C-alpha cells in the first residue's frame, strides 16, 4: 500500500529565501527502515534530510535523525533548526519549546520571537599532538596550501578538524578559497577526519566575532552552506580566544548564513538563527 509523507524544504540560518543551508524535513506517522531513509536522502541530494517521528503521540517530544546523500550523521544543527521551523510555523505546535531524542542525546529548540534557538552539546577541540600532526599533515596542506595559519585543533567525538587562518588574511581571500572533494579525499581517507573547518577572526571578520567555512566530502557533502554542528566546535575555540560567551558568526559559503551563539555555564551551547520554509509537498512511497 502506498504511503504519503509530508515533506518540506527549509533554508536554515537565514531570513532570506535561497540562502542559508537547505534541509529536507520528512514528517513520519510511522517510522521507515534506514535503507529507505538513505534512499530518500540520496534522491533529494541535500546536505541533510531529516526524519521526524512522535514519541508517545506527544506534540513536543520527537525522535529525530539526519541523513546526508551517503550516510547517517549523529548531529546536525541546521537540520534541527529546519525541523523546528516546520513544527512551529506549519504544524502550529502549541508552546515555545520542542525536544528531540537523537543520536547525540536530547536536543531542544525554543521559539524566541523571529528566531529559533537550539540547545546543543559543546564539542571543544584540542591541539594536535605530534602523532596527529604527522597523520594530518597531508590534509592540512590540501586545505590551506601556502596560506598562513595560527592553529590547528581537532575534536575526536565529531571528527572535525579546525584550522584557524592568520587574521592577516582578507575576508575576500578567505571567501574565495577553493577546495575540491577530490583533493580532500585524496589527502585523507583513514576515517579520522569527517569534517574540515576553516575559520578566520580579527578585524577582517568584522562585524562578526569570527567567520567560518565547512567541508565534509567524507559524508557526501563538499561545502556545507551553514553548519550548526561545526559551531559546537567553533564556539569553545573562539570563546576562549576572545574571552566572551556571546558570539556572532557568519559562515562564508556561496549561500552564507548567520548565527547568534551563547556559551552556557553548564557545558552546552545555544545557537540561534532564522529559517525560511521554501517548498511544501508530498513524498509518495
Automatic annotation (TrEMBL):
Keywords recorded for this protein, A-Z: Isomerase
Any one GO cellular component localisation term in the record: cytoplasm
UniProt keyword Isomerase, yes or no: yes
Transmembrane segments: none
A GO molecular-function descriptor: isomerase activity
Pfam families assigned to the protein according to its UniProt record, in alphabetical order: PhzC-PhzF (PF02567)
Active site annotation, chain numbering: 48
UniProt xrefs under InterPro entries: Phenazine_PhzF-like
Family of the protein in this entry: Belongs to the PhzF family.
Name assigned to this protein: Phenazine biosynthesis-like domain-containing protein
Organism in which the protein naturally occurs: Strigamia maritima (European centipede)
Amino acid at each position: 500500500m502506498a504511503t504519503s509523507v509530508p515533506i518540506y524544504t527549509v533554508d536554515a540560518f537565514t531570513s532570506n529565501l535561497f540562502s542559508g543551508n537547505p534541509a529536507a524535513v520528512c514528517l513520519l506517522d510511522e517510522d521507515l527502515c534506514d535503507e529507505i531513509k538513505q534512499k530518500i536522502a540520496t534522491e533529494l541530494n541535500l546536505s541533510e534530510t531529516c526524519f521526524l517521528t512522535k514519541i508517545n503521540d506527544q506534540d513536543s517530544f520527537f525522535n529525530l535523525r539526519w541523513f546526508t546523500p551517503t550516510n547517517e550523521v549523529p548531529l546536525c544543527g541546521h537540520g534541527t533548526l529546519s525541523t523546528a521551523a516546520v513544527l512551529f510555523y506549519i504544524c502550529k505546535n502549541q508552546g515555545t519549546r520542542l525536544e528531540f531524542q537523537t543520536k547525540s542525546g536530547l536536543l531542544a529548540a525554543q521559539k524566541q520571537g523571529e528566531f529559533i534557538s537550539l540547545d546543543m552539546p559543546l564539542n571543544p577541540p584540542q591541539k594536535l599532538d605530534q602523532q596527529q600532526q604527522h597523520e594530518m599533515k597531508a590534509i592540512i596542506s590540501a586545505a590551506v596550501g601556502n596560506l598562513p595559519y595560527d592553529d590547528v585543533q581537532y575534536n575526536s567525538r565529531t571528527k572535525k578538524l579546525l584550522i584557524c587562518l592568520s587574521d592577516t588574511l582578507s575576508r575576500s581571500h578567505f571567501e574565495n578559497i577553493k577546495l575540491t572533494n577530490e583533493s580532500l579525499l585524496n589527502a585523507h581517507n583513514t576515517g579520522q577526519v569527517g569534517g574540515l573547518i576553516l575559520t578566520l577572526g580579527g578585524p577582517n571578520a568584522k562585524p562578526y566575532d569570527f567567520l567560518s567555512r565547512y567541508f565534509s566530502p567524507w559524508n557526501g557533502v563538499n561545502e556545507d552552506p551553514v553548519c550548526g554542528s561545526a559551531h559546537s566546535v567553533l564556539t569553545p575555540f573562539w570563546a576562549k580566544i576572545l574571552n566572551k560567551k556571546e558570539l556572532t558568526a557568519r559562515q562564508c559559503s556561496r549561500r552564507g548564513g548567520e548565527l547568534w551563539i551563547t556559551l552556557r555555564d553548564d557545558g552546552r551551547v545555544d545557537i540561534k538563527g532564522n529559517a525560511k520554509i521554501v517548498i511544501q509537498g508530498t513524498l509518495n512511497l
